[in-house]
Design goal:
Radius of gyration of chain A: 24 Å
Number of domains of chain A: 3
CATH topology of the largest domain in chain A: Dihydrodipicolinate Reductase, domain 2
Largest interface: A-B, 57 and 57 residues
InterPro entries (chains A, B): ACT-like_dom_sf (IPR045865), ACT_dom (IPR002912), Asp/hSer_DH_NAD-bd (IPR005106), HDH (IPR016204), HDH_cat (IPR001342), HDH_CS (IPR019811), NAD(P)-bd_dom_sf (IPR036291)
Number of strands of chain A: 17
CATH superfamily of the largest domain in chain A: Dihydrodipicolinate Reductase, domain 2
Shape of chain A: elongated
Cofactor (chains A, B): a metal cation
EC number (chains A, B): 1.1.1.3
Catalytic activity (chains A, B): L-homoserine + NAD(+) = L-aspartate 4-semialdehyde + NADH + H(+); L-homoserine + NADP(+) = L-aspartate 4-semialdehyde + NADPH + H(+)
Oligomer: homodimer
Number of helices of chain A: 14
Helix content of chain A: 25-40%
Family (chains A, B): Belongs to the homoserine dehydrogenase family.
Chain lengths: 430, 430
């Protein structure tokens, strides 16, 4: 049964993603109509710079007054692709107050204010969908909150930032240093002029917070996510990783504690074995491993960013939200009933790869080994290399709480035979 | 808002999958209640052998009369994990006639009668969900029909049968022949006593038909799927594949024709480059590549079979169908509006790897090359090996319609310098 009155869509933002959304809504209008059961009409496009020429978009639809567009009374669904906290937050709230369901690609906002926005949507009986906020085109939010709704997710580990994966992949394949690889990523458009949000892990941490909430049916705020960027990763670290049969990736890792009573969420660079499927994720691709009790290990892989891939995710949500509108129903909202607390990084159980510059004299290894033992950290392997009176010691630990591992490192720094800690990197995926 | 009256579930079949479904429904009852918004109660279990002890299942719930269970008037949702065509088909139809939504894991039935079952569900305003019918726990049906609902899928290529992947992986890694690898798969429980459905590609063809329908929004019947099994794949084929930097996988490949006016669906063994992500799918795992216009290349990976993984998919569907019941709505039904015809195998554009036993005398290569040219097939590489008056010629073609390629092979067989066609294998994934 096909309805002929169209559902009206307000597009908030018309940059790289928004213009692709508008283009596909126009070129694939017949398909969208069939799949939804009613036509969807682009009824208004709110932008900051109205003078910019936007190919394929009727200039009559363009406005600088997003609030007025939402308040005019005929909009069914708003697509928010502005990004950032404000004005996006206020606009989404305004939309809900006017009976408008929302599709958003805004990871920063969802990570910071997801709970309040979900509550507002639920209060008004409306949808808030955001598949595009995490890992671009890769279906991840819907599979995790719908396909795995009858399962218990215990662990999520993934590469959720394309820019940093591009940089790390270049460093791995060419031996380049961080700055050189970043320069190439910037020249090719993979990194922004100010790459801070990517390289310091803020972008990945926002996605980690969103995914952790969905995975564990609890609330995980951005501040709950431990975060380390990858600007300190060096060519020497990659050389060390290679000696171990590993590469280095910036990982988002979300885990349920062994006792099931708490969860952890973290973003940091880590060595992973070359045999791990995440090791072979190249260039700016994203991939996420999900381990669930019944399903086992699943992996989702694809382009994590870009106008068209992100638009694909937005439009998938648009179809779902439009179908819900027609059925006068809503999709799954926030599920935070477990109320599991988020433990600090010190409680995370992991392994360290530590490179020490040490004095080349007898007894150093014994002193170092004693320090590990005093902190309850068991050593997996040690490799000693000496030349010209200098020596280096590479220690890989067994699994231990991060607090014990970092405490060990602090104690090692104080040993007079240890001249410096050359690098510390966690080891994951084994 | 939590409803306290439970939704009542009839479980039809209690084998490997059904018993896992029942177990999880019991052990994770609180989680399911929270995620659905109402409790779900296992209200009856229909089995063939009531005397069999089923741990964790109240014997009072067990019946041999599935029809009576569906007709008794209090069932909201039926889970069909019997498999095969009958009695599953009649029971699902009975369920719809009594206002019962259905979750099914039955690939054979969906591939054969999906259209009629979808029509029956729609007629009664009910749901028919079947994530578990394709690739076990891997979310694939929902991502394709919901996450990618705003995109245009052009190609799906995947490993959708775990048994054959296990056998081919063994042949590849150990150099074993087909029979030896099959025997190992049987001993380890990866292959059934009668492996025909797996090794002849019937199981993969059923999944291919289901996926093709979803991918292209058209109807693809089981008979529309070209099917070749993998019982003829030899150790020599793997040796040839290795020389080309390839391995051999049994692939399901669904493609939209270049002009967009038709589709093709096929299952056959093929060489794929080791660099292709599907090449590294080991043991009984499944993985499916989806190429969409806006999203680009996505991959979904995970366990393709087994009691618990399949139960995970069933329970994800159960949560969705239960939520729909509470909202008095239904999820997306069949989408077949494009009505794209399915072209025969001869129209598929592919590449052949052909090994010929030829006479070791001058002019043979010229004669063979002429035959290819006469059929409009362009040669990519030729490798000649001669010893003791015998010679072999390995030809890899460029892309050409399968009809032209198979026509070439027929003509080659008739050349008096060609003593035999040792093997033919398609080459994909480049």
């Amino acid at each position: 049964m096909m309805r002929t009155r169209p559902l009206k869509v307000a597009l908030l933002g018309c940059g790289v993603v928004g213009s692709e959304v508008a283009r596909i809504m126009t070129t694939h209008a017949d398909d969208l109509t069939q799949r939804i059961g009613a036509p969807v009409e682009l009824a208004g496009v709110a932008v900051r710079r109205p003078s910019k020429v936007r190919e394929g978009i009727d200039p009559e639809l363009v406005t600088t007054d997003a609030t007025a567009l939402l308040k005019r009374g005929d909009i069914d669904i708003a697509i928010e692709v502005i990004g950032g906290i404000e004005p996006a937050r206020t606009l989404i709230t305004t939309a809900f107050e006017h009976g408008i369901s929302v599709v958003s690609a805004n990871k920063a906002l969802l990570a910071q204010d997801g709970a309040a926005l979900h509550a507002a949507a639920e209060q008004h009986g409306l949808d808030l969908y955001y598949e595009a906020a995490v890992a671009g085109a890769i279906p991840l939010v819907r599979p995790m909150r719908e396909s795995l709704a009858g399962d218990k997710i215990n662990r999520v580990m993934g590469i959720v930032n394309g820019t940093t994966n591009f940089i790390l992949d270049k460093m791995d394949s060419t031996g380049a240093g961080y700055q050189e690889a970043l320069d190439e990523a910037t020249a090719l458009g993979y990194a922004e002029a100010d790459p801070t949000a990517d390289v310091e892990g803020y972008d990945a941490a926002a996605k980690a917070a969103i995914l952790a909430g969905i995975a564990f049916h609890t609330r995980v705020r951005l501040d709950d996510v431990y975060r380390e960027g990858m600007t300190e990763v060096s060519a020497a670290d990659f050389a060390s990783a290679k000696r171990m049969g590993c590469t280095i990736k910036l990982l988002a890792i979300l885990e349920r504690a062994a006792d099931g009573e708490s969860v952890t969420a973290r973003v940091h660079p880590a060595m992973i074995p070359l045999s791990h499927p995440l090791a072979s994720v190249r260039e700016a691709y994203n991939a996420v491993f999900v381990e669930a009790e019944a399903a086992g290990r699943l992996m989702f892989y694809g382009p994590g960013a870009g106008g068209a891939p992100t638009a694909s995710a937005v439009l998938g949500d648009l179809v779902a939200v439009a179908r819900n509108k027609l059925a006068e129903a809503t999709g799954p909202g926030e599920s935070a009933y477990t109320q599991l607390p988020v433990s600090p990084m010190g409680d995370v159980v992991t392994r360290y790869h530590i490179s020490l510059d040490v004095a080349d004299k007898p007894g150093v290894l014994a002193q170092v080994a004693t320090t590990f033992a005093e902190h309850g950290v068991s050593i997996d392997t040690v490799r000693q290399q000496g030349k010209d009176g200098e020596a280096s010691l590479v220690v890989v630990t067994h699994r231990a709480p991060d607090a014990a591992l970092s405490g060990t490192v602090e104690a090692l720094r104080k040993l007079d035979t240890v001249r410096g800690v050359a690098s510390i990197m966690r080891v994951e995926g084994e």
